[in-house]
Amino acid sequence: GKTNFYNVVSKLDFGSNEFLLDTQNSEFQLSAANRVLVHSMLYHMGLKGKKVRLYATSPMQRYFHSDGSVNEDYIKQRNDNLKKPVFLKDNSTIEIVEVTQIPEGFATYLSILMKPNKAKGTINIDTSVTREDVLILDFGGQTLDVAVVSNGKLVVQKSYTEEGMGMLKIHDRLYDYLKSYRRNISREEMSRVIETGVFATDKKGTNTINVSERVHKVVRDVLSAAMDKVSKRTPTNEFDRVIIGGGGAQIIEREIKLYIDGAEMVSDPLHSNAIGTLYMATSEVSASQKNAEPA
């Protein structure tokens, strides 16, 4: 078949923005580009030439059908896609032998439910969390995943994904304003602008302007649209706890808390889904090893 070549870079070269692949669409997670990105991550983890059991997350809206049933077709397509080989420059590969999907948002819940015991190498459950009605708001790049968990169980019919409400929407809105000064702006720089309210009109950074008012307006516009939808579908005052996580959450924490009184930020919002998924994987591997031990 046809061979496709991709480059995964940590920093963009000047003028290469036009060659970036669009990840803000529902088809990306089933694409060859997504598979390359995952395999690149595994390579940088030192897993070249290894067999890997992979745990991955998917947005709530794609993991489940609207009636609450698991979208088995999507999960199978994504798992099959991730297990296809990706060849590095030296023709080596990483073999993904098994994939387990976990819905985003719920993975963040697992990060507060499960507590690792490093001394024993086990995962414990915080039973106090299982007695609460918890609303998880997971601010990702493309989406806002909303997970409703009651008595330790995901209430699928009340959980959902809001597309186009993630951090990249804020980036894009702000870029539309800043591009009149300069177009060569990385995602990393855009995050700093959102955090500091300061933008350098030249790449050297010798001339800066205060854009804090514009930043606050863009954040408020995107966030208010998201919170309006959340308040109509899952009013935050009906929950014991409202937990905030996701890569974009930390940067706009102050603005989020203006909308949600008493909202709690997880200790590591950038990696909250990954941490919850890691705890689940550790627990399952530990249980399988224990079951395999002779009586």
Search tags:
single chain; 295 residues; alpha/beta; six-stranded mixed sheet; two-stranded parallel sheet; 10 helices; 38% helix; globular
Percentage of residues in DSSP E strands: 15-25%
Question: Which sequence of SSEs, written as H and E, runs from N to C?
Answer: HEHHEHEEHEEEEHHEEHEHEH
The chain-level mean pLDDT equals 86
Question: Which structural class fits the helix and strand makeup?
Answer: alpha/beta
The N- and C-terminal alpha carbons lie at a distance of 50 Å
Q: Could you name the ranges where pLDDT drops below 50 across 5 or more consecutive residues?
A: none
Radius of gyration based on Cα positions = 21 Å
Range of helix content: 25-40%
Count of individual beta strands: 12
Structure description:
- By secondary structure, the chain is α/β, with parallel strands linked by helices.
- The protein is built from ten helices and twelve strands.
- The chain has helices spanning 32-44, 60-63, 72-83, 106-113, 127-130, 167-178, 187-196, 212-233, 253-259, 272-292, and strands at residues 51-58, 95-103, 114-117, 122-125, 133-139, 143-150, 153-154, 160-163, 198-200, 208-210, 241-245, 264-265.
- The strands form four sheets. Strands 5, 6, 7, 8, 11 and 12 form a six-stranded mixed sheet that branches. A two-stranded parallel sheet has the order 1-2. Strands 3-4 form a two-stranded antiparallel ribbon.
- A hairpin with a 7-residue loop joins strand 9 and strand 10.
- Helix 6 runs antiparallel to helix 8.
- The N and C termini lie far apart (50 Å).
- The relative contact order is 0.13.
